[in-house]
Amino acid sequence: MTDHVEALAEFACRRDLQAFDAAAVTRVKWVLLDSLVAMAHGVQVPEMQALLRITLATAPPGPCWVVGTGRQTNAADAALLNGTSGTWLELNEGCLIAKGHPGIQVVPVALALAQELDVGGEALLRAILMGYEISSRVGRGAKLRMAVHPHGTYGAIGSAVAVAVLKGFGPAQMLEAIRIASTLGLATSRRTLLEGATVRNVYTGHSGSMGLLAARLVEAGFSGESTGIESAFGQVLGEEFDLKSLTAGLGEEWLINQGYFKLHPTGRYVHAAIEALLDALAQVPGGRLDVAAIEHVAVRTFKLGSMLNGQVIATSFAARFSIPFALATRLVQGDTSLAAFSEAAVGNPVTQALARRIDVHEEPAFTARYPHEQATEVVIRTGDGRTWTGRCDIMKGEAGNPYQDAEVERKFLHLGSQAWGAEVAETLRDRVLRLEQFTAIGQLAAGLAL
Predict the structure, then answer these.
(1) pLDDT score of 194
(2) What is the rounded CA–CA span in Å between residue 46 and residue 102?
(3) Contact (CB, 8 A) for 148 and 26
(4) Helix (H, G, I), strand (E, B), or coil: what is residue 323?
């Protein structure tokens, strides 16, 4: 085990960005941009606005963006606030192979500390990329218990790596940071998202906090468990751990390249059902059905998707983890925009009634194909006896069925223009895409009150 973790620590200390995979470096920039718009919109929900007021009332000042507010604070509070807001609306990038969302657990703390230290853009790119890669490898190797939510677990390791990169840790310190962070994760519960419990959103913010703490403990001389990853992810949070996956293809296979971007603001497993619904609607003249004529919708999907089967939804957050609601609101609203999952949309009695006519069940054959395929079938039956069937085998956004670059850029500019105005969104895009040219992050931030 130690040999594998030592190899990760040495790898994380590589400093020549030019030697990294070019596609991975480009991908990091889009993960950063995608995370920023997710934060900017997530911070607008009432709970985040309240947390913002409470936190900033006593927080020490600093140069770090609280994204979406035009305000700044210290790195620790910025990492917590941005990490929490960034996952709220389910707009953020993720990686099925890593079994979660490495980016939103690494980007907030890396950006905040980079602003506080005013390091160069190349250092920020390396920090995000290394934090993402190493935490993803931990996530890939862990067979987490079904009851465990992956947010707030391996994210602490990714955040610690990012912080250590920005602080210039050598291999010995990096190794200790990984060991310490491996047992600083939360005992997270998957039930939080099934119940719509919003404490789930702080799990990602917690990862950033633990990354900062891990680095501070290293600097103070603390030590971590030598087999911390194996213990935490193979015994406590997980049922077993594949040690070889930590270093398999290291430096050649970049897991960030196998991640996904989202265009639907829902939990990832909902996307397969949405794509199957869209496939069915493509066969309908005009692409729309009379909602009143829909008698029943049957969804067959893989196990993790089948768990998102709630038919009675009370809040906007819970709506993002309900296949019945997501399909119902798409059929009623005609799209899957943020507005389609707003509190007003949740309160629509037509949508609520339709959701109760949508049943979701696991198909074992589909579960056997997961995660490499996310097979889902949707069958719509109307009152006149007609049926419309749609399928999804690989969700849009996955490496095997990626969105086009223009689609990801369009998402950023659309949401960014809503958050900051078109001119600021375009400026931010242009600066991030040439981030390595900035010798100090203050140059990136100049004139941008995000």
Answers:
(1) 87
(2) 25
(3) no
(4) helix
The first and second tokens of residue 375, run together, are 């097979």
Whether 1 has a pLDDT exceeding 60, the answer reads: no
- 202-220 and 155-166 helices cross at what angle (nearest 10)? 50
Give residue 344's identity as a one-letter amino acid code.
A
d(CA 29, CA 52): 27
Query: Which of 264, 265, 335, 263 minimizes the C-alpha distance to 89?
Result: 265
How distant is the alpha carbon of residue 445 from its chain centre?
23
Q: What length does the chain have?
A: 450
pTM passes above 0.70: yes
Q: What is the CA radius of gyration of the chain?
A: 21
What backbone phi and psi angles, to 5 degrees, belong to 294?
-80, 115
Q: Which residues, other chains included, contact 26 with Cβ-Cβ below 8 Å and sequence gap of 6+? A: none
Q: Provide the sign of the torsion angle of the four alpha carbons 49, 94, 237, 131, taken in this order.
A: negative
Q: How far apart are CA 280 and CA 288, in angstroms?
A: 10
Q: List the domain boundaries for the chain.
A: 2-261+404-445, 268-392
Q: What pLDDT digit, counting tens, does each position of 188-239 carry?
A: 999 998 899 999 999 999 999 999 999 999 999 999 999 999 999 999 999 9
Class of domain 268-392: alpha beta
Residue 102: the pLDDT is 97
Do the bridges between strand 71-73 and strand 142-144 make them parallel or antiparallel, or are there none, so unpaired? unpaired
Was domain 2-261+404-445 assigned CATH 3.40.630.30? Answer: no
For residue 98, give every residue at least 6 positions away whose Cβ sits within 8 Å of its Cβ, in sequence order, or none. Answer: 135, 136, 137, 139, 140, 150, 154, 255, 259
State percent of the chain over pLDDT 70: 100
Taking Cα atoms as reference points, which of 103, 108, 207, 101 lies closest to residue 160? Answer: 207
Please report the beta strands in 2-146, taking only residues with DSSP state E, as ranges in sequence order. Answer: 64-66, 71-73, 142-144
